[in-house]
């Protein structure tokens, strides 16, 4: 008869391990930012749903779903498997639009509505604006570095093609 393993050293069951993101991604800067964006968006969605500013609840819901999708896409390396979508640019545009939208609806929720849930949604919206702004700043720097690296490779290819051409243009 096999002896049971001690409960303290037990790993999660294989089914659960396939759903959870890897620990390396959760400890990375991008993983923490996407997790913070998801949690903040969900909190803001709940606040606006329970407030008089219920008309603002669609933006946090969409941002929550997008952040959650990108969280799992990056965690399970779908960005490496699906090359047809330019992931850094998509993530950059998502962060820029989310920061602008959260800033706008937070100002409207804090100034126009007087209930506590609207004010709380507005305050969390300002915090989310900062988190999204940090994410788009970091993503923008990565995007610029990638584009500089890509443009230097393409200029080297053009230079070698020009040197190897046998045209008699003189």
From TrEMBL:
It is found in: Membrane. Residues 25-144 form the MARVEL domain. GO terms for cellular component: membrane. InterPro entries: Marvel, MARVEL-CKLF_proteins. Keywords: Membrane, Transmembrane, Transmembrane helix. Coiled coil: none annotated. Residues 150-170 are annotated as: Disordered. The chain crosses the membrane at residues 33-51, 57-76, 88-110, 122-140. It is a multi-pass membrane protein. It holds the Pfam family MARVEL. This is CKLF3 protein. It comes from Zapornia atra (Henderson crake). The gene is Cmtm3.
């Amino acid at each position: 008869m096999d002896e049971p393993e001690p409960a303290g050293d037990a790993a999660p069951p294989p089914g659960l391990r396939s759903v959870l993101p890897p620990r390396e991604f959760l400890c990375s800067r991008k993983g923490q930012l996407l997790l913070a964006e998801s949690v903040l968006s969900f909190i803001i969605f709940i606040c606006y749903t329970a407030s008089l500013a219920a008309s603002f609840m669609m933006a946090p819901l969409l941002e929550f779903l997008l952040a959650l999708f990108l969280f799992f896409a990056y965690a399970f390396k779908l960005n490496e498997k699906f090359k047809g979508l330019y992931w850094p640019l998509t993530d950059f545009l998502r962060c820029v639009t989310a920061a602008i939208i959260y800033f706008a609806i937070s100002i409207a929720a804090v100034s126009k509505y007087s209930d506590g849930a609207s004010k709380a949604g507005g305050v969390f919206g300002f915090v989310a604006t900062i988190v999204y702004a940090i994410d788009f700043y970091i993503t923008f720097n990565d995007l610029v570095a990638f584009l500089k690296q890509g443009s230097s490779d393409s200029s080297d290819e053009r230079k070698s093609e020009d040197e190897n051409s046998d045209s008699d243009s003189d």
